[in-house]
């Protein structure tokens, strides 16, 4: 179930440590954070990650964003979350007869404990489970993993070039502090503050790299390796693919009528995994 959603994950993590977030790498050269600052930012960010923030329905409620109009990330994301959840429910129900089968699966429990211990440093305050005792808990956890690897990554990654290619819109660094008083900001001060050309070039390279599409794209719901051989899982995959087609049509119909398109969570732009 999860293998397609980890496609190229180890590869991209290795590359990121080698050329992107390493000392002297693109982030170190192109941003005002520096390598040491990046480590601090990551540390602080990890301290804030919770199980609630990783589960879209819980996150939306927690942030009070349930009723904000025209919030396409929420609307499209919830459609994908529900489609993934329905697919996962079918698979888990097929292979696990009940709660005892979940709690008694030693490999599953070891995997979840490894994530809790090494991925979240054993922080009970994160709310991330260290074990799974019921079918319902397993379904939610697997849905979170699949959603994070596919839709959530698409939402935060696919728009990086759109938002950052025009440097004043999202400058990677500032060479001067912002003005503290109104009326004291002038064009030359602004130009002297945003990154200079060489830094901008480094960041654009990173944005182009992160936004590029692989030739071997595996869109959400496409499983060419055919990990499942039984009839029921294959039927569930077809149903999942059909639901994704419906979501695609809904998003494209809305975008056709909209002044500003939001297409980052279109299943045609959402890959199974974090494969950059």
TrEMBL record:
The keyword Oxidoreductase applies. One of its GO terms (biological process) is lipid oxidation. One of its GO terms (molecular function) is isomerase activity. Coiled coil: none annotated. Keywords: Dioxygenase, Isomerase, Metal-binding, Oxidoreductase. It comes from the Eukaryota. The keyword Hydrolase does not apply. It holds the Pfam family Lipoxygenase. InterPro entries: LipOase, LipOase_C, LipOase_C_sf. Residues 1-276 form the Lipoxygenase domain. PANTHER family: LIPOXYGENASE (PTHR11771). This is LOXE3 isomerase. It comes from Horornis vulcanius. The lineage of its organism: Eukaryota, Metazoa, Chordata, Craniata, Vertebrata.
């Amino acid at each position: 179930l999860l293998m397609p959603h980890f496609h190229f994950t180890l590869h991209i993590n290795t590359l990121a440590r080698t050329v992107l977030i390493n000392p002297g790498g693109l982030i170190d050269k192109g941003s005002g954070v520096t390598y040491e600052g990046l480590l601090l930012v990551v540390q602080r960010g990890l301290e804030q990650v919770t199980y609630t923030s990783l589960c879209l329905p819980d996150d939306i409620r927690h942030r009070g964003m349930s009723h904000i109009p025209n919030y396409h990330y929420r609307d499209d994301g919830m459609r994908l979350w529900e489609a993934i959840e329905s697919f996962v429910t079918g698979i888990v129900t097929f292979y696990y007869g009940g709660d005892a089968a979940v709690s008694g699966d030693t490999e599953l429990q070891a995997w979840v404990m490894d994530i809790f211990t090494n991925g979240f440093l054993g922080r009970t305050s994160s709310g991330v489970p260290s074990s799974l005792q019921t079918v319902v808990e397993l379904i939610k956890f697997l849905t979170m993993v699949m959603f994070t690897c596919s839709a959530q990554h698409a939402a935060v990654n696919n728009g990086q070039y759109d938002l950052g290619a025009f440097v004043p819109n999202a400058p990677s660094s500032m060479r001067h502090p912002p003005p503290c008083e109104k009326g004291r900001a002038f064009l030359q001060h602004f130009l002297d503050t945003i990154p200079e050309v060489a830094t901008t070039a480094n960041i654009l390279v990173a944005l182009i790299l992160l936004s590029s599409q692989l030739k071997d794209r595996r869109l959400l719901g496409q499983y060419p390796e055919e990990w499942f051989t039984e009839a029921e899982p294959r039927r569930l995959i077809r149903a999942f693919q059909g639901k994704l087609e419906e979501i695609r049509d809904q998003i494209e119909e809305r975008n056709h009528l909209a002044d500003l398109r939001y297409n980052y969570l279109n299943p045609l732009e959402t890959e199974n995994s974090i494969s950059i």
